[in-house]
Design goal:
The chain is α/β, with parallel strands linked by helices. It has a single domain, classed as Vaccinia Virus protein VP39 (Rossmann fold, 3-Layer(aba) Sandwich). The chain is built from eleven helices and twelve strands. The strands form two sheets. A nine-stranded mixed β-sheet has the order 2-11-12-10-9-6-7-8-3, sandwiched between helices. A three-stranded mixed β-sheet has the order 1-4-5. Strand 7, helix 8 and strand 8 form a beta-alpha-beta unit. The longest helix is centred in the first third of the chain and has 21 residues.
Length: 344
Amino acid sequence: MDFRFNFVIDGNENNEPDTQDKMDLKLCSPKHKQECTKKRKKTAETVADSSPRQGTDKHRDETPKFCFKAAKEHKIPEDLDKVLENKVMKTASDLYYRSAVDIRCLDGTDEEGIISKSVSSHCDLIPGVYEGGLKIWECTFDLINYFSEAEIEFTDKAVLDLGCGAGLLGIVALKGKAEKVHFQDYNSTVIDEITLPSAVANCINAGSGVNRKTSKPPSKKPKKAEGLLPDALNKCRFFSGEWSAVSKLLLSSKPVSKYDIILTSETIYNPDYYSALHDTLAQLLDKNGRVYLAGKVLYFGVGGGIYIFEKFIEERNVFRSSIVKIIDKGLQRCIMELAFKDSS
């Protein structure tokens, strides 16, 4: 099948976060893990004491609870040319994604009003309204790098990209020959205007011979994989809505969707969301599956962080968790692996 489409590839490497080429990334050796554990426990206590806690009156008053947003599946349009028509695509870590700046200039693409609300409030997060999916956060690239370094195997796996934004984590899994990849974001605008175009661009471009500007390649790339073709989109499904609603929708489908791997980045910023996130992971993860979660040590002004979430996980006693990678450059960030306590 011959695909022709009209979209622009922005080859400026400045589109990728400046920190990407300079990160001090390190996998935890056994000795380092012991040191990390002691450091985490001490830091968790300090962070928990200085941050608003879930359940405190102050936190309830200042931060709205996770608002219900009905689940919706977004069908892949038959006309893939139309999906990418007049879209500006950027590149990062050898992947294509649509820029949020691009859709600010177009009418009729933001039925939820999240772009105008984000701009007017000068805020990347509006709890219960807009949950940050228009922006690619730096922990996404931390996790992509970890896939290569730890040689995470996606072949024939069922994968969920939870809180996907542009969907780069799921697209990497798709390139790694996953059996199926599902994408979820809180906002329908993000799925329609960011995630779907990004997935389509990566699939179509791999087999189309599209011209792109020559630029210096990123210093770190995902594990090499064969190019995607449009048929790879048949492995994908796209969902918007609040986590519990999407989980219910997926569990009601036949056959029931359970995932070998769940990928999620920067979804632990608000402790009010931890219960919904935890329950969604518990309901959708296969009994022997793995969750790979990337997040910052502390999200200033919101109260969440990797150690606070780690403590929450321990208290729930459903998953075993381990910090498998620490990024010390700049604001400290970590990658956590989760598995059921009774899994193999």
